[in-house]
Amino acid sequence: MSYLSIKGLKKSYTFKPILRGIDLDLCKGERLALLGANGTGKTTLLRIIAGLTKPGAGSITINGLDIVQNAQQARQLVGFVAHQPYLYDELTALENLVFFGRMYNVKEAHERAAALLERVGLARRAKERVSALSRGQVQRLSLARALLHSPQLLLLDEPDTGLDEDGNELLADILHEHSERGCATLFTTHNLEHALTWSGRTAILHAGRIVYTRETEGLELEDLQEAYREVLKPRAKILS
Amino acid sequence: MIFLKQVLTILWKDIRCELRSKQTWMGMGLFALLVLVIFNFAFDLRVDNKAAIAPGVLWVAFVFASLLGLGRTIAAEREKGSLDRLLLCPVNRKAIYLAKLLGNLLFIGVVEIVALPIFAALFDVPLFGALLPIVLLGTLGIAAVGTLFSAMAAATQARELLLPVLVFPLIVPVVISAVRATGTLMVPAANEPPWLGLMAAFDIIFLSASMLTFEYVIEE
What CATH architecture is A4-85+151-239? Predict the structure, then answer.
């Protein structure tokens, strides 16, 4: 049974269709990389699944819970790393995590926050304000924040942005551990290599529809690059 | 119990952020002080007309200073994208409203505590203990409406312009009641309507309406 199930999802902003009918299933422990050019609706899709944007049509269920009807319960299951860090600049790294831990009703939030800071390599900067951290460190902290309540579904919107090589390795490890625990992950990226190595399945979103999906096992980087180019071809013709 | 814990956690976060940034308190306090000083020079404060002018001046200072703070309530969250983060949490939206309301009451309350002695000194009026319930009920009314509409205005481009336009017409009853009740304290008058009761009724109505509608205002 699918842990995340999306059926006929549509979304428009002021009559401009962004998503034109998305059907997608994600099982427990599965990692799906969502690719696509800028403006194809990847962020919108993730925001809808996270419950931040209302779907226009169609349905989304997480572990059988409809995200509109059972919004509060569904939110408890989701961890989301967005473009923006969603952290408070005036609070320290530790205070931010403790605050969000309490929001998710995490037991022993302080201990959990300290353990996650250690995990993402920020233990020594725990008492520094977020405004004093670098872009990559903020991204690591965002990742820790998303993992605070041990979500069953992790949504990551271009999580590799701003991360150095060590950061990317850390992210890959965390994604691997997450799926080992039987949790599902859906992430977007523009890096095809990351998509290939970090996920078990890739999908390409184009013009509001999923136009390509394939397991990464046996898939070569060149094949994925070719498929990506093929998808973008009509668009390139129009632009030329 | 969880509801209360969430309210206090958000309130704790807001107080801590404000204590470190000092943006809202400083701005509100300075503004209230400037209004009091300017009106003190602008009006002819002879003994016979002091009671007619002073309550209005006091509440103009409170209302305008409050709006400065109320405007920042949700706007600061939206600017940094952290409102989404708060909305992403499995938190009752009423808890967010209540925490923001309590935060506003606290911020406005501190400004009032500073402004009242200055007002008393500048306008040479005594501070009555009976002023406390008037200030409390008046501030609660302004904050209850302001917190709701600050969430509405924060989603727009022209929030600084929109917030006063939305809030002022709605708080007219509570401001009139507060000014008249304060005036009655200075110069007792017969057959005055029960201003405190009117303010309490206003507060209950707008607090209930705001709690019920906040969820729809704050979410997309």
Answer: 3-Layer(aba) Sandwich (3.40)
